[in-house]
Amino acid sequence: MSTIPAECRLAVDIGGTFTDIVLETRGRRDTLKILTTPRSPEQAVLAGATEILAHAGLAPAHLSLFIHGTTLATNAIIERKGARTALLATAGFRDVLEIADEGRYNQFDIFLERHEPLVPRSLRLGVPERIDAKGNVVQALDETAVGNAVQKLRAAGVESVAICFMHSYANPRHEQRVRDILLAGWPGLPITLSSEVCPEIREYERTSTSVANAYVQPLMAGYLGRLRTELTARGFTCPFYLMTSGGGLTTLETARRFPIRLVESGPAGGAILASTIAAEMNEQRVVSFDMGGTTAKICLIEHTRPHTARSFEVDRRDRFMKGSGLPLRIPVIEMVEIGAGGGSIARLDAMRRVCVGPDSAGSEPGPACYGRGGTAPTVTDSDLVLGRIDPHTFAGGRLLLDRGSAERALAKRIGAELALSNELAAFAVVETVDETMTNAARVHAVERGKAIADHTLIAFGGAAPLHVARLAQKLGISRAIVPVNAGVGSAVGFLRAPISFEVVRSRPMVLAAFDPAAATALFDEMRAEALAVVGQAGSGLLESRAAFMRYVGQGHEIAVPLSGLELGPASTARIRQRFEAEYATLFARTIPHADVEILTWTLSLATRTALPEPIALPTTFTRARPGGQREIFDSESGRRETVPVYERAALAAGSKLSGPAVITEHETTTFVTAPFDATIAPGGAIVLTRRP
After folding, report:
1. Is the peptide bond before 618 cis (omega within 30 degrees of 0)?
2. Could you tell me what percent of the chain has a pLDDT over 90?
3. 8-77+222-262 and 265-340+437-494 have identical folds
4. Domain residue spans in the chain?
5. Among 521, 519, 499, which residue's Cα sits nearest to residue 511?
6. Which residues have CB under 8 Å from 480's CB, separation 6+?
7. pLDDT in tens, 430-450
8. Which terminus of the chain has a smaller tally of CB atoms within 10 A, N or C?
9. What does DSSP assign to residue 123?
């Protein structure tokens, strides 16, 4: 077996429509797209992993690493298919989930309806106890009340419990004691402590995060346990890691304890891929554009680093308006996610306007053209009718598309109602979804003070290359890149991610009374917790430290990096300098002589991953020769035009072609619109450049 590569890694990304699988060995990459099996997601994972290994002539025992990302936790919350969950809160605070922050995300909607909490009021129980913000016990825990609660929860058929007491981030003793009492009378009960999953100030966000974790924990623990068992039984003995929403890998055990950290694992892998491509192509300002079967994700990346945050909203229901979702306090790569994927369903609204999404046909039944029982028109149906997709090579030829079914669905739901031809109905759907994604990208950039036209688009996901050129036109962007294996881009990104873990603690401290010994002890405690997760990854870990700070009296904080700063008697002035530098960057001013305070501290450990060096791009080009031609509907002329078709694998570095044109490959298709030229970079990336 000397021909077996020394390093052989497998990545799997479960999406709403397809499960993407990437196998990397030294000098070789195999990819596969297989329809997701939503009722039992591990079936697609196991079938796809077995197939791709067999195709490469390898056995499961040859793998050195298995990396997995999934949207199961997100989907369980959105579809309300999690566990029957209870909340134990400090007496008098069980309604925090409904009171929230008392704000209205839409001031002008008199019919505004909020999310139904994941835990109904009947399963939210108050427990007499109280700890103050400094960690002092104000009221002792009533253990008799806890015992009574156990009986009520058993009778109610509860499957998981979240415990969230006031100020437990400062002193977790009461939460830990309640856990011990529950487990003594109810062994095996899944329990989430807010002091473990989200030890931070702000009661509503901490409670929401803890409840969401408890809500998905039985589902995710069961799925991951079944998957691990099946993998072991089939000879997969290599280390198994999960992709997190923060852009790092974590262990199976950690993922089962904190499954809420997996909510954006797939999109995070895509952002990691875009960062790698940005470094390789020497791009300093990038917008990553990930469009799959169910959603589209847009992320800003500056100097090869994606924007990150410690807060996130899942399931924004009211036109994706900020504040209309469930808030989570977890490490995330900051991005905007909208219901605009290949499977997004098109319809007419009450004003007879074409609308697309956010609901998706998924993989069961899928778009009408899949021939699996779907009757609603989708973006994929529209791309097929417009001629942008070859029905015989879709998803590597695994799925033969039925154009007739796509045309009938469009005619029934769109064309007949608006007196449009099939092609114009399809164009209306595609143009609507492109405009939706354009608006989301503009808003995302403006909220962060960025001019999006100054950026380069990096497109990946099965549907993104079909839409990237039109998106670039609408955004005023002159350059776009479609990397190799773009159709399975997030899974490729998994293989570039570090093993990492971030720990957070809320410990308020006014800078004028800064205690370096207490801060050092806190960081030591946090480092030990992070090391317990990533320590097995080896030596040479990269440590990052930061504090969330504000001027005293302000309502919110900004992140201030503290890495490389030795904490001591003279560090107060340097911390203030760093705070004011970050504050001035965001607000173009500081507040002289105002007191500064630190509320929350973070520390992360990660394995070191090197970004690629910039490649030398070609300066001379050879005109590419098409391998065929295809009729594409042209919206300007209102008729079908014959355009050249190029096979990506046949295009050498330095090849050049002009739009309109189609570039086909195994997992996706790139549609080059008329204003763009396409060139092939060393390594195979397609670079779209708008002609002057």
Report:
1. no
2. 57
3. yes
4. 8-77+222-262, 82-215, 265-340+437-494, 344-431, 500-606, 627-677
5. 519
6. 456, 457, 458, 459, 468, 469, 471, 472, 676, 687, 688
7. 999 999 899 888 888 887 778
8. C
9. G
Closest alpha carbon to 52 in 75, 81, 76, 20: 20
Give the right CATH number for 8-77+222-262 from 3.40.50.970, 2.40.50.100, 3.40.250.10, 3.30.420.40: 3.30.420.40
Confidence of residue 274 (pLDDT cuts 50, 70, 90): very high
Nearest Cα to Cα of residue 670 among 472, 462, 489, 478: 462
- Taking the C-alpha atoms of residue 537 and residue 114, their distance in angstroms, rounded to an integer, is 43
How far is CA 635 from each of CA 248, 427, 476, 673, rounded to the nearest angstrom?
A: 43, 7, 20, 11
Question: What's the CATH code, domain 265-340+437-494?
Answer: 3.30.420.40
Which residue type occupies 562?
A: L
CB 472 within 8 A of CB 455: no
Residue 208 CA to residue 205 CA, distance in Å, equals 5
pLDDT, the chain, mean: 89
Using alpha carbons only, give the angle 404, 408, 411 rounded to the nearest 5 degrees: 135
What is the rounded CA–CA span in Å between residue 518 and residue 504?
Answer: 15
Distance of alpha carbon 252 from alpha carbon 225, whole angstroms: 9
Q: Which two tokens stand for residue 205?
A: 């966000």
What is d(CA 413, CA 395) in angstroms, rounded to the nearest whole number?
26
pLDDT of the residue at 123: 95
* Reported confidence tier of residue 2, pLDDT bands at 50, 70, 90: very low
Mean pLDDT computed over 9-15 = 91
